[in-house]
Structures are given as C-alpha cells and as structure tokens.
From TrEMBL:
Membrane disposition: Lipid-anchor
Protein name in the entry: Outer membrane protein assembly factor BamE
Keyword line: Cell outer membrane, Lipoprotein, Membrane, Palmitate, Signal
Subunit structure, interactors included: Part of the Bam complex.
Signal sequence residues: 1-24
UniProt key word Membrane: yes
Domain of life, per lineage: Bacteria
Keyword Lipoprotein: yes
Length: 119
C-alpha cells in the first residue's frame, strides 16, 4: 500500500513538471537590440571624401572606437530575438586625412559612392 502511494505521488509530480515545462513556450521573451541600427538607404547617402562630421550626421556615432586607429570606425548592430531569431549587420568606415575613402561590411556601396558631394 505504501509503494502504491509513492507511485501515485511520483506520477502526479511528473505530470506537474511536464505541464510547467510546456508553459515555458508561452513566456514572452523580449528582443534585445544593441549597437547602431543602419539601413541600406542610410549607407547609400555616403560619398567619398565626406568629412567625419558628415558621416556622423548620416550614420550617427560609431559603436566601437579604436583609440589607436582613429581612421577606422566600426558600426555594428545585433538583435537577439526572444524566440531565437538573431540578426547582425556590420559596417566598417575608413578615413584618410579625415576624409572618407572606403566602406566595407554587410552593406552595398551605392553607385554614387565614388562621386564626391562637391561635384
């Protein structure tokens, strides 16, 4: 009789645990964005020979600054989705003599990138 009560208690305990773990899919998990959110339309505004101030006006401040190389800026955006759908984008902006010379990363250069704004 005592062993039957133990079996019933274990069965009830297992049923409760399985129902609680099934509820974990109902829990709301927030998305966690980090960094600079950039869109292709923003990157398309960049032109060769732009000043650093102009680039900051278009893209905002870079997320990572290198104190040893002030001529390379890194823009990074990551979204950790609550349901596991993660997203990352990177953009590296390079300057020479405080003028924009190149961009690289997950964004395309616009067709007008090599045309300075002055023309």
């Amino acid at each position: 009789m005592a062993s039957m009560k133990a079996v019933v208690k274990i069965a009830v305990l297992l049923a409760v645990l399985s129902s609680v773990s099934a509820c974990s899919s109902w829990v709301y998990r927030i998305d966690i964005p980090q960094g600079n959110f950039l869109e292709q339309k923003d990157v398309d505004k960049l032109r060769i020979a732009m000043t650093k101030e102009q680039v900051v006006f278009v893209l905002g401040n870079p997320v990572a600054a290198n104190p040893f190389d002030n001529d390379t800026w890194h823009y990074f955006y990551a979204l950790k989705g609550g349901r596991g759908n993660n997203f990352e984008k990177r953009l590296v902006v390079e300057f020479k003599d405080d003028r924009l010379v190149n961009i690289s990363g997950d964004f395309d250069k616009s067709a007008d990138f090599d045309k300075p704004l002055d023309i």
